[in-house]
Amino acid sequence: MPPEGDEQTVDDWVALGRQQVITAGDVADSIRIQDTAGITAGVNEGEAVQKEADAIADDYGMIDCGSAGNNS
User: What angle do CA 30, 57, 40 make, to 5 degrees?
Assistant: First the structure.
C-alpha cells in the first residue's frame, strides 16, 4: 500500500504500466498482421506512456523505476 496521501500518484503510475502492457499487445497484433502503420503508432504510444510513467516515478523519487532505470 502506498503511503497515505500518495494513493493517486501510485494509482496513476500503475495505470500507465497497465497501459504499456495493452499497447505492447496491440503492437504484437500489428506485427502479426504486418500493419506497419499500427506498429509505428503503437511504438509511438508506448514511448509516450513510458515518458509519462518515468516522469511520475522521477517526481515521486523512484530512482530505479523512473527515467534513470532506462539507462541500464
Answer: 20
C-alpha cell read off for 34: 504486418
C-alpha cell at 59: 517526481
Q: What is the pTM of this model?
A: 0.80
**From the CA atom positions of the chain, what is the Rg in Å?**
14
Query: Which DSSP string corresponds to 9-32?
Result: HHHHHHHHHHHHHHHHHHHHHHHH
pLDDT in tens, 37-62: 999 999 999 999 999 999 998 988 88
Angle between helix 36-60 and helix 7-32 axes, rounded to 10 deg: 160
DSSP state of 59: H
Distance CA 52, CA 10 (A): 13
